[in-house]
Amino acid sequence: MNILVNGLITGIFFGFLLQKGRVVRYDKQMGALRLMDMTIVKFYFSAILTGMIGVTVLHKLGISPSLILPVNIGANIIGGLIFGIGWAIIGYCPGTALGALGEGRIDALWGIMGMLVGAALFAEVFPVISDTILTWGKEGSITLPQVFGINDWFIIIIFVAGGLGLFYWLEKKGL
What we know:
This protein has about 180 residues and is an all-alpha fold.
């Protein structure tokens, strides 16, 4: 099957889960930002854990090649700050903004327009930052198992156990 069709099917399925998990709701977004409702944290951490296991299985079975992007600490910090500020201002992250728009929440259009403007600005400044900011803390393509010299599955087991413990604790606290 075509990779674009796979992406479309996966995107529709993920959007459905976003909506069913109620993470496209503004009150859930604000609850997460105020550390009062961890629905979004639980949802996305579940997706990360599922992805860790799925990507590793696909790679180990030879179904999918391993694509490890280079670590760039400077770009990650600056990008994370811009992402966080935008999320705090508009109340949606990119995926949930599109999901909210799909539910008819017109306020999400402001965030989507901001993302498009931000992408255009990034494209314009890329030639300048590619030789400056994008070189800060460039570490190459590394993984946690490589850093610690251990098996991939050991890291996955640690993250899954930690995630289950976190989920249990959050549920116990009513978050």
